[in-house]
Amino acid sequence: MKIRDEKVLVLDIDGTLTNSQKEITENTKRGIIDIMKRGHKVILASGRPTPGMRRYAEELELEKYGGYLLSFNGGRIINCRSGEIVYQKTLPASVIPGLYRYARANDMGIVTYLGDNIILGTRTDEYIELESRINGMPIRKVTNFPKYVDFDVNKCLMTAPPEIAENYEKELQKMYGDILSIYRSEPFFIEIMPKNVDKAASLDRMLSSVGLTRENAICCGDGFNDMTMIEYAGIGVAMANAQDKVKAAADFITKSNDEDGIVTVIDKFIVD
Hints:
Layout: E1 8-11, H1 13-17, H2 26-37, E2 41-45, H3 54-59, H4 62-65, E3 68-71, E4 76-79, E5 85-88, H5 96-105, E6 109-114, E7 117-120, H6 126-135, E8 139-141, H7 145-148, E9 156-159, H8 162-176, E10 180-186, E11 189-194, H9 199-209, E12 217-221, H10 227-232, E13 235-238, H11 244-249, E14 252-253, H12 261-269
Parallel strand pairs: 1-2, 1-12, 2-3, 7-8, 12-13, 13-14
Antiparallel strand pairs: 3-4, 4-5, 6-7, 6-9, 9-11, 10-11
Helix pairs in contact: 2-12
């Protein structure tokens, strides 16, 4: 059955909107712009920092069509048309020294973000280099991370090999679960967020501000950090390349990110 009222298409970026080359295909771009011309909304919702999302916002002309960015897993919401920060939540400053000590003790990477830079507190590793590359943001290594980070922080990112990152994730949840949200966006990325910040919570806040509800939302993703919005949405969509747990949470499984899976979603649920 086609859905004909106003819809909000909410898209994770990596592994969802973009293919394996981190590019939006012409078919996907055309389909997304077409539904915005028809009056539907598009939101990009990513664990990426805001600067790492700009390229895709520009490609999709979100400023022109009034789209939104949910960056830092929902820690910040930006109205692309006005540039206004609609909402943001930051980490308690008191947790930074403890997170840094934990990272050093376990030989993990730890970074945060300032402007267009990734602020690194430990040695770099392949995962931090990947974070720098996919976001197009340079790494700035600092000698005293807790002292240097005297600004508002939307997110810290910790890194570890996939085979041990899950254990670190669980330990950190036990240590900080009462004041922080901690979960993996990739097997090697541990996201450290303010409590009660995730893609679903921020999406709910944004939709309420524009007079829409979860029933209007079609949320698409592939990673662990997409599960909350997939479960929240009127229609939750997992990509064929998604983690198995994400697929289990979804209402619909579309084609992979290398097969224009988002176009399939648009054709099935939005386009008459």
